[in-house]
Task: structure prediction
Amino acid sequence: MGTQHEVTTSGGISLGGTATARIERNLGMTPEADRVLSGLASRTGLSEGDVIRVALGMFKTAVEAKEEGKHFGVASSSDALDIELVGF
Result:
């Protein structure tokens, strides 16, 4: 299997070290996106803010992989992707 990146909620998306300051942002979203966010928070036991932080960390990893010419997706084994995430 390849390199694993742990996305944490307590330290933001920092892969090394800890976040010491936070910036507050207002986020507008559609009712459907709000339901998805709420549902993911409920299903995972995370706060809505933590769901967004984890998603940001995952997206950062995906963009970096793409920049390196790699593929990013979902796999049931380490041999091949079942679903490749594209469009970013």
In short: The chain has a mean pLDDT of 85.
